[in-house]
Amino acid sequence: QQSELNSFLWTIKRDPPSYFFGTIHVPYTRVWDFIPENSKKAFQQSHIVYFELDLTDPYTISALTSCQLLPQGENLQDVLPRDIYRRLKQHLEYVKLMMPSWMTPDQRGKGLYADYLFNAIAGNWERKRPVWVMLMVNSLTEVDIKSRGVPVLDLYLAQEAERLRKQTGAVEKVEEQCHPLNGLNFSQV
Q1: Is residue 97 part of a domain?
Q2: For residue 46, is pLDDT > 70?
Q3: Residue 11, in any domain of the structure
């Protein structure tokens, strides 16, 4: 029953009410049908919506990309043990080879090409910090590739908020997310 699902929606009792909704970073189509109506209604009725980050802001995307890079002059090959680097390189070659067979006809129909998609996800991987390469590798699976082109739930809601002309904002800055991850030492990663 829809009404019995855990909606991850909290109501802050004030006038007008405020809501707090917990999202996850997965393609919205994987979870949308399971989001209860009370959560969708709260979103629809809200005039102002704040997100973790503003994923519709080009600066946010640029800053996220920059923060993932190793310091100037350093490459992943310099910081990873040789064997791990070699295995990573082989795995990425395998993924690049397999990606055309992982893509859906719908993705191809929308003009999405495997080489473009691989470069969008893994481009410049040799300049990224190990923690970001780990996150990238975790997203290079057949299931994840098949859902590329579908916005994650946060981005979908942000796009909907813009479409509905809601005022939007962000709770965090890129640096607040980036610096803790970049602060992990190699053994933690």
Answers
A1: yes
A2: yes
A3: yes
